[in-house]
């Protein structure tokens, strides 16, 4: 049975992270890593990466067209999108795993504890 600490999938997640953030690609791995971690990235990518990380459903063709006009290739835009989405997903996964592993801080009421 899987445990809430995520150990069952740790190696797979590490491999995915390595492939998305560290492997050779059109975009510098340091930029992909920063986009995933919420770090410093080129200014012309900031609003797009924030949108992908926080409200991906709001990304429009216009956002992509702006990046193309700024000189980014389709491959670079794809890579920054995947890196930002991966970083946001991994953050949320880690927070969820941490919440599940945390001991309950809610004290039982006397009725729940078997008291009167």
Helix percentage: 55-70%
Indicate how many domains the architecture comprises: 1
Q: How would you sum up the major sheet?
A: none
What's the gyration radius in Å?
20 Å
Structural class: mainly alpha
Q: How much β-strand is present in the residues? A: under 5%
Report the oligomer. single chain
Distance between the termini: 37 Å
In summary, what is this structure?
This protein is mainly alpha-helical and 116 residues long. It contains 5 helices and no strands.
Features:
116 residues; 0% strand
Topology:
Blueprint: H1 10-22, H2 29-37, H3 43-55, H4 61-69, H5 74-101
Helix pairs in contact: 2-5, 3-5
Write up this protein.
By secondary structure, this protein is mainly α. It has one domain. 62% of the residues lie in helices and 0% in strands. The protein is built from five helices and no strands. Helix 2 runs parallel beside helix 5 and helix 3 packs across helix 5. The longest helix has 28 residues. The two termini are 37 Å apart. The model has no long low-confidence stretch (mean pLDDT 87).
């Amino acid at each position: 049975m899987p445990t809430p600490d995520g150990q069952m999938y740790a190696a797979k997640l590490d491999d995915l992270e390595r492939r998305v953030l560290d492997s050779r690609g059109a975009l510098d791995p340091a930029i992909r890593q920063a986009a995933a971690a919420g770090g410093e990235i080129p200014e012309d990518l900031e609003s797009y990466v924030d949108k992908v990380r926080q409200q991906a459903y709001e990304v429009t063709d216009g956002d992509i067209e702006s990046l193309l006009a700024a000189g980014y290739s389709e491959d670079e835009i794809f890579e920054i999108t995947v890196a930002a989405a991966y970083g946001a997903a991994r953050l949320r996964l880690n927070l969820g795993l941490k919440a599940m592993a945390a001991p309950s801080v809610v004290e039982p009421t006397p009725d729940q504890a078997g008291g009167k």
